[in-house]
Amino acid sequence: WSWNDTSNLWSSTNETGSNTTFSLPFAPTGFSATTVDIDQINLTWTKGTHAVYTRVMQKTGSYPVSLIDGSLVYNGTGDESSSSSLSFGMRYYYRAWSWNDSSGIWSEANSSTYNITAPFAPTGFTTTVMSTSQINLAWNKGTYANYTRIQRKTGSYPTNISDGINVYNDTNFSVSITGLNPGTLYYFRAWSWNSSLGVWSITYASAQATTQGGGGGGEEAPPLTEGEAPTADAGGPYSGYVNQSITFNAALSTDDVDVVGYRWDWTNDGTWDTNWLLLSRTTHVYTIPGNYTVNLQVQDGEDLRDNDTATVLVKTGGSLQQAPVADAVGPYHGLTYQMIQFDGSKSYAINTSIVNYTWVYGDGSYGYDVSPVHSYDSAGIFTVILTVKDTNNLQAIDTTLVTIILDANKNNISDIIDQAIGADITPDDLHSVTIQGVLYYLVDTNHDGSYDAFYNPTTNTKTILGDQDEKQLIDIDGDGKWDYVYDPVLGSISPFVEIISPLTTPWLSIALSVIIFIVILMIVWLYKTGRI
């Protein structure tokens, strides 16, 4: 109905309408990424409450920040998908949103996960024959790998990580193989391993060598051949908008071993605009519309190279709204019951401003400020989630970790230090010192104003300080020998140098006394014999 407050009259007719309320869909839960091949990551999730569809976006370098940022992996009603044709040894970031097609509403929050495709094989794998029974091996560790495993065989190359004899499985870059037979040809293959992900490299590095001498009986090594140059593939054609990121993908570049570097010339003017990059994907922003040619150069482990070009169409216009960027900083550290200052000030909006910060602390609590403070009642490692929203109602999420150590007696000192020191101390009784870049503590255990103990956080051990000329002597490793001297006046640390005084050393004093006695006897004898 309508109303006129001057005449005090209502309208004699009215209009009717109806609508239905809808529940805001929740973000998907249980979102996980599992590496299953050199170029494939499988994704699974539980569909969000009140949701019908799930949309999954993929990026390298950082998480997708909106529903259109990155590459679309999935947009359907299921709860799993496979992301294939990926570049190996690369970290991929995924975010998933929920959609209710009846209400036309997207979930405000999203779920994030990431994983890394299989690591690169070792590079620069070489052999050096040292004797009739020893061959030295050296290599460069594969990218995204922390372990290298090497198998040995005669007659042919090992075909997998269990074939033949295992000669190495550790984190270094070289090994000596001994106990070999003279004049024998040995075949070696090396694989990479990422222990945190539990992923082996799909490819491997190969090398061979024949031990010296032995009167024959071994196999003659075939002549060495030069490796093949890589084949560059710049992808494309590409298109995008002025002042917006365009993603370039060189993942289809190949080599007989592996591609170890990518660099780009965004305008094909002969000057490389990037350094050598490990990742095959990168982004660039053009500020002027037009048609461009981009030049890609790839390099393999033998420093062989190849180039390829692609076209880029940069247009004006495009979406004027871009999602903000969330930055939770971190990681953070603290003690139980201790206030921790979180910092979201590095988050920013694009052509607008952030109007809301929401922190999920990981212990069931929330905060709503740029830089809130929060304390934890229990020890552990907590995942902290920051969600920021701008004036266009676009949002972004970032995560970080906070590590909380137990402080049961609330004295602002961890129970680990309390137990190692074995005394009732306060923060005022601790003085931090740095020795060769490592943090240690001097401790006043009896509150008399003088430090009497030394705490090593790395080994969680305490040693007693010595004293020399009102300076503290430090036994850094607990071997009973002084290593450093602390000067409380200057607040400085210096290496310990033992001061030896001939007059105070017992055997020197005795020797000197004997010499003096002999001299006296000789003088007496010379006098009695009339010689003096």
Note down, in words, how this protein is organized:
- By secondary structure, the chain is mainly beta.
- The protein has five domains: 29-116, Immunoglobulins (Immunoglobulin-like), CATH 2.60.40; 123-211, Immunoglobulins (Immunoglobulin-like); 238-315, Immunoglobulin-like; 332-405, Immunoglobulins (Immunoglobulin-like, Sandwich), CATH 2.60.40; 415-495, no CATH class.
- It is 6% helix and 42% strand.
- The longest helix has 23 residues, at 506-528.
Topology overview:
Layout: E1 3-4, E2 9-10, E3 29-37, E4 40-46, E5 53-60, E6 71-76, E7 80-83, E8 91-100, E9 105-106, E10 111-116, E11 123-129, E12 135-140, E13 147-153, E14 165-170, E15 174-177, E16 185-194, E17 199-200, E18 205-210, E19 238-241, E20 245-249, E21 259-265, E22 281-285, E23 290-300, E24 305-315, E25 332-335, E26 340-341, E27 354-360, E28 366-367, E29 373-374, E30 380-390, E31 395-405, H1 415-421, E32 430-435, E33 438-443, E34 453-456, E35 461-464, E36 466-468, E37 471-474, E38 484-487, E39 492-495, H2 506-528
Number of helices: 2
Q: How would you classify the helix and strand content by structural class?
A: mainly beta
How many structural domains in the coordinates? 5
The pLDDT mean sits at 85
- CATH superfamily label of the largest domain: Immunoglobulins
Give me the CATH architecture of the largest domain, please.
Sandwich
Fraction in helix: under 10%
Number of β-strand runs: 39
Chain oligomer state: single chain
What's the N-to-C terminus distance?
144 Å
Largest sheet: 5 strands, antiparallel
CATH fold name of the largest domain? Immunoglobulin-like
What CATH first level of the largest domain would be assigned?
Mainly Beta
Low-confidence stretches: 216-225
The radius of gyration is: 36 Å
In what range is the share of β-strand residues? 35-45%
Envelope shape = flat
